[in-house]
Amino acid sequence: DGVTLLSDYKPYPYEIEKISLVFQLAPEATKVRATLAMTPRDGVADLHLDGEDLKLLGVALNGAPLAAEAYTLTTTGLTIAASALPEGAFELQTEVEIAPAKNTALEGLYMSNGMYCTQCEAEGFRKITFYPDRPDVMTRFHVRIESDLPVLLSNGNPVGQGAGFAEWDDPWPKPAYLFALVAGDLRATSGSFTTASGRKVDLNIWVRPGDEDRCDFALASLQRSMKWDEEAYGREYDLDLFNIVAVDDFNMGAMENKGLNIFNSKLVLASPETATDTDYERIEAVIAHEYFHNWTGNRITCRDWFQLCLKEGLTVYRDQSFTRDVRLGALKRIDDVAMLRARQFREDAGPLAHPPRPSSYREINNFYTATVYEKGAEVVGMLATLLGAEGYRKALDLYFERHDGQACTIEDWIKVFEDASGRDLGQFKLWYTQAGTPHLSVSEQFENGTYTLTFEQVTAPTPGEPEKPPRHIPTAVGLLGQNGDEVVPTQVLEMTKGRQSFTFTGLAAKPVPSILRGFSAPVVLERDTTPAEQAFLLAHDTDPFNRWEAGRNLARDTLMAMAQGATPAPDYLEAVGQMLADDAATPGFRAACLRLPGEDEIAAALAKKDVVPDPDAIRAARRGLMATLAQRHEAALVGAYEGSAVPGPYSPDAAPAGKRALRLAALALLSTLDQGRRASALYAEATNMTESIGALGLLVAQGAGQAELTAFAARWGADPLVMDKWRSVQAMLSPPETAVEVVTAIAESGAFEWKNPNRFRSLLGGFAANHAGFHRADGAGYALFADWLIKLDPLNPQTAARMSTAFETWRRYDATRQTHAKAALERIAGTQGLSRDLSEMVGRLLG
Length: 847
Ligand code: B3K
Ligand code: ZN
Hints:
Elements: E1 4-5, E2 14-24, E3 30-40, E4 47-50, E5 55-61, E6 64-65, E7 71-73, E8 77-80, E9 90-98, E10 108-112, E11 115-119, E12 139-146, E13 151-154, E14 157-162, E15 165-174, E16 181-184, E17 187-194, E18 200-207, H1 216-233, E19 241-247, E20 254-255, E21 260-264, H2 277-292, E22 301-302, H3 308-328, H4 331-348, E23 360-361, H5 370-403, E24 407-408, H6 410-421, H7 430-433, E25 439-447, E26 450-458, E27 473-480, E28 486-495, E29 499-504, E30 512-515, E31 524-527, H8 531-540, H9 544-563, H10 570-581, H11 587-594, H12 599-608, H13 615-632, H14 634-643, H15 654-670, H16 677-685, H17 689-701, H18 706-716, H19 720-733, H20 736-748, H21 757-768, H22 771-774, H23 780-792, H24 797-803, H25 815-829, H26 836-846
Parallel strand pairs: 2-12, 18-19, 19-21, 22-24, 25-31
Antiparallel strand pairs: 1-23, 2-3, 3-9, 4-8, 5-6, 5-9, 7-8, 10-11, 11-16, 12-15, 13-16, 14-15, 17-18, 20-21, 25-26, 26-29, 27-28, 27-30
Helix pairs in contact: 1-2, 2-3, 3-4, 3-5, 4-5, 5-6, 8-9, 8-10, 9-10, 9-13, 11-15, 12-13, 13-15, 14-15, 15-17, 16-17, 17-19, 18-19, 19-20, 19-21, 23-24, 23-25, 24-26, 25-26
Cofactor: Zn(2+)
Family: Belongs to the peptidase M1 family.
GO molecular function: alanyl aminopeptidase activity; metallopeptidase activity; zinc ion binding
């Protein structure tokens, strides 16, 4: 029935010593000849090679053509009967023809703006040649590319080059998903890195002619990443060459192919005029992420795709640590948790909930999720918290020593932590195998100098998982005295039962607890506390994350109450004023505190309390609170706005970026009072994209900015990456009364290149983030979205399926909206020839 089960895993019956590939590139008819040196592992068995959309031109065994009776060809592959195979080693050769120019799915070998490129993870290699396309089959690749294009690249080291061809050899055995090939008219920005042991590595960032002047930041990011991985994890790079190629048509962010990373061009190209501070930060983080995969993913890979979080969760944890260390410090945790809640908690609370290590799937591409990535990273972070910094490093050293060159499982990973620490992590493993976000409620008691915290954990059922046994939860707690001094420094309480108490003795007075410091576990903390106490923590907590969290809780509670008709809580308004005045806090931190929770987050919080969220009331509450804050603190906000202007040439560094963030956060509030006067002025004088697009967004949110939108399009019309911002700002921020019409107008203007995933995501992804617009009561938002998914699916199922997650919250809303959303989903489900990708998603969404 098309379902793949973890429990069905069987090792592949053949070893492959080596694969040699010859590509004769042509847009409509590329020929691929593959020669596999194979040996049966355990006696002769039927030999299955995966293959899809391949035109078979010939099969030969040890040099002799194979008779047609000896093999069967299906739509999913080629099987050679055991009876046709020799006892021992043999050489198998296939020749196929493929059409990269017709490949709109952007998986396998395809073309983008005249260049050839590949995307093989998870199962794209089977669209290039017949091969056991599974991560536990690792071998050495030799590649010959024949083409007249000037730059011909593959994995590993260049071993031959001449007129119309290049040959590459990768000395490191790898699974097929890490194979890559690029051919095109490309220009390199080059540099080098010398490893700790003295190996000089050549680095190239390859882009289309004309883009060379936007590569310096990516190159410097790569150098920083290489250095950090040596220092933090003792990991050196292992080839003499590292290539990164920017591609305009790409289904996701980037791909860690061995020695030849391929990137979505939006995550490489940056200049002050075209990229925002957030773009710079993401470019650095993704360059680091893909580079870090060289050890966590490539040298040690996954046994099967159920183990995806083994490489992704760990590598996200590593890139988050990198960004904290080289750029953002404590602010990084705040950003990551805000993102985790917005995406992963949302996923965990809906029909798409699944464990970081799922146990079944139809289409693996549907499992590159916030749960596998971000929650996977949280689980690694909890292991680091439980073992401490030294213990974590010891465990990772053991992981690399024990498993280098292998394809591993989550069981292997946990065993490494058990062996390095001597601890039993059996209960901890539930984090990997069960879905759902635990809710942790806390109560306190103080008597005779003894303070007791009692925790209770409950996880609601998720699809297919009615029972939720207690998890092992590391809870970092510190206690503050009434004057704000820290009376008990942070300690990690380990909760393993459903209900559990922890005591602190010898206290002079009842303390104020700071619980779940640094967000030490991905749980929802529920605590009956007063606004006054939250305000106290916002003012005094020594843990920067919990300081921010206290303000966030106040803001969220205020907004929830306002969405149900209340007026804003005075404690909150007061606390914001104090925070704004706190010059000891960095501008970046103050900006994070000024930003209010998004409408979707408020809706989720209401739904959790069994209140049916009203998108229009939520929007009104949020805008109302912004206006109230602006009125109350106008002088301070004007001070913050004017005082955090950054003079001089643009630098993407954290300090000026933090100032710009504060400036824009203050401006967002002030814009509710000045009819966009300041935003217009800032737009006119801005010399960097952060401020241009920030100001433009504020104008659009007020239903204004027509002149600025026109000016922006006139200036940037020829730059598709910049125009993506123009589209997404309008789709995301237009008022709900006009958002559907705005999106429709952009979509239907001939200029919208919807087949390019960046273009599609900028508009439809932006619209999905427009809470009140997408969830418009008459269902027009849902219908528009469904139309576009139906249109994209036959060309690019992967991106269509990914975008369908816009519907994952549909059951939260009122009956009318539910009826419209359900109708839209059913219309998608009923579409003839729907892809496996999108039909799996819609099936789960409809539950
Ligand atoms: N490993 C790739 C993602 C591949 C997605 C395939 N649908 C990028 C990354 O996580 O680094
Ligand atoms: Zn990754």
